[in-house]
Every structure is written in C-alpha cells, then in structure tokens.
Specification:
By secondary structure, the protein is an alpha/beta fold. The chain is built from eleven helices and eight strands. The mean pLDDT is 92.
Length: 248
C-alpha cells in the first residue's frame, strides 16, 4: 500500500542539481506506473526542503560536526509538513542519518547505501569501487553501511586524487558544468579501482552520474547511486517497496 500524503520528503540543496533530478525522476517514474485519473496520471505526494549548499560545503570542509545540525534544519521542516519517509538527495548528506534518526526515531529513512547494496547483491557483486565527495571516500558513513550488507568498498587511496574529484564536484558539477577533461579524470580513477579488483563502481555523488555514464566505461559496470535511489523512492510511493526490504 502506498504511503499517505504528504508522506515522502526530499531533502535537497546539497546541491540543488541533484534535487531537480530527484523531483523530476520520482514524478516521472511514479506517473509512468500509475493509471490515468481525471485527465492524466496523478503526481505523487511529496514535500521538499532545500538547505544552503554553500554553508553545507563550508561545514564539510572546516567544521564537519556542524553538518548534521545544518541538515536537521531541513529535516525538521519536512517532518513538520507531515513527512514520514525521508529521501536525502545526496550521498554525502547521509553522514547526518544517525543524528536524524536520533531526533526522529519514527521517521523512515530510505538510505542510499541500502538501495545500492540491494542492486549490487542482485547482480552478484561484493567488492566494489566508490567515488564521490572527499568525505564520502575518506569517511565510513557509506562504506560501513555497505559492509553491513557484506559489500567491501574500495576508494582512491591517493588523497590528491580524492581532492581532485571533490574539486570537480564542488566547482563544476554543482553548477551544472560538465567538462570532457573532468570526465576523462573520473574514468581514469574508475579504471584504477577496477585494476585493484573492483567488480563494479558506485558513482557515489549524485552529480557524478550526470558526467559519467556506462557508455564512457562500456565494459565495466557503473552503479548510478542517485538513479537507483530515485527508482527505490518511486517504488515506495507505488507501494512496490517497503523500507524493510532494503535494510541490512
């Protein structure tokens, strides 16, 4: 049974680019799976809250302890609007999940790592690469969640490479700027993870998959985390998926 309106809440602004994709993608997938009502297929019930990406990235870089408080402000507005299931339109934003669950224990969180893990296990992968923001690669909030599903994660070991990827995300992709040189760099990093034994690679920043697609690495599986997350959110709204279905 589909959740009752306004039910699904999307936390965005981290960056707005991914928020646009989540709103558009969830609507399109739900409408495609819903019969026409009066004139057309109905839009799914959702609420959105947008936080300041500049403040967010500043805290990520200089005061990571403040990230959760910054994102919680957006979550509080979603809960006040009636949200009972949360979708965070960002891999990195999932570092705040423990604080969110602590403040709102009844709030269901559709975790992006759980959704990716379900896809990975369904395809028989247990050793995967991960590229994303520097915090996502350096810290454990996604890697440890994936490990709960029995999935080992490899990230670029060179801190300079992590910094280069992070700079591309913050200074280009978050502004909807997509450069061939940056795509070539991402592909080079992905091939390096493949050489270390990765069976596939998670594009673990919701903007990276706008730059790099399977056609750019045609013989190596890429998992676009945002696309997978969006499909899972649509399935929740369609009543095809329960949060418990993807939990570790």
């Amino acid at each position: 049974m589909a959740i009752e309106p306004p039910g699904l809440g999307i936390l965005t602004g981290i960056s707005y680019v991914s928020g646009l994709d989540y709103y558009k993608g969830i609507n399109e997938k739900v409408m495609a799976g819903t019969p026409r009502c009066h004139v057309m297929s109905p839009n799914p019930p959702m609420v959105m809250a947008s936080v300041d990406c500049d403040e967010y990235v500043h805290y990520l870089t200089h005061a990571s302890a403040r990230v959760a408080d910054h994102l919680l402000a957006g979550v509080r507005s979603l809960v006040a609007a009636g949200c009972n299931t949360l979708v965070i339109a960002s891999n990195t934003g999932h570092m705040a999940v423990p604080a969110i669950v602590d403040e709102f224990p009844e709030l269901g969180v559709l975790h992006i790592a759980d959704c990716c893990a379900a896809e990975l296990k369904g395809r028989g992968f247990s050793r995967v690469g991960l590229i994303g923001t520097k915090p996502t690669m350096a810290e454990d909030y996604l890697k440890s969640r994936l490990m709960l599903h029995g999935i080992t994660t490899l990230v670029p070991e060179d801190e300079q490479i992590q910094d280069e990827i992070y700079d591309i995300i913050c200074q280009e992709l978050s502004y909807n700027v997509f450069r061939d040189e940056s795509r070539a760099k991402m592909v080079e990093v992905i091939r390096g993870l493949e050489a270390r034994g990765a069976e596939a690679c998670i594009l673990g920043c919701t903007e990276i998959e706008l730059l790099v697609q399977e056609k750019h690495v045609p013989d190596f599986p890429l998992l676009p985390s945002a696309e997978i997350h969006i499909q899972a959110a649509a399935n929740v709204l369609l009543g095809k998926l329960e949060l418990e279905d993807v939990l570790p």
